Amino acid sequence: MIIYPAIDLRGGRVVRLTEGRFDQEKSYGDDPLAVAQDFAASGATWLHVVDLDGAKDPAKRQTALVEKIARGSGLRMQTGGGIRDESQIAALLAAGAQRVIVGSVAVRQPALVHDWLRKFGPEKIILSPDVRLDVAGIPRVAAAGWQESTGVALDDFLTGFLLAGLVHILCTDISRDGKLTGPNRALYARLVKKFPSLQIQASGGVSSLDDLRGLKTTGSAGAIVGRALYEKKFTLKEALAC
Questions:
Q1: Which CATH number fits domain 2-241: 3.90.1150.10, 3.40.640.10, 3.40.50.11030, 3.20.20.70?
Q2: Catalytic pick from 51, 130, 173, 211?
Q3: Is 23 a catalytic residue?
């Protein structure tokens, strides 16, 4: 299981949001490159970067900063935030990213994202279905920065992309994000079992080394770790070692 230390960018700063809410922001410094370099020095091989400004307004994308982090850290990177068209994917790949994260547009325009998977290849695109569990416990995909429920069941969403060659997904349980309450292990274990051809990354709630050990038993291919590192619940070296 790959550990992906996370950097969320807003106005050039490193921040974390709670449940994706911009009014629930906590800042962790104004030098994201230094943070990434520290992750590399601790043994990370990958980095997860979200451009929060780009997610809100495509005109404010921080692509130059993303490139600075990619080139300056030497880490492999997956990055996104409000990706809406092919040119944004091409720009991020040209900036040094290995994978581009695609979210809401995959729910709203699945045929378009099918085309992207075929054009760029399944190793260059990672879908990020962010979900809320409904009253029956069924995960349903959210959109628009998690503020909008699409009503689309996660299983149906993923099944629709398998024929297009989908390989990588990053699934966030919104109710756990930024809260240090532990990941939804049952969700990831079920997804791994039902979709064995997918490389599934878990996101949301990691707060301890035991959380990471538990995720590994689910068969998850990766885990996103953000706030727990910044709040010093454990070190990245400890996370990688476990």
A1: 3.20.20.70
A2: 130
A3: no
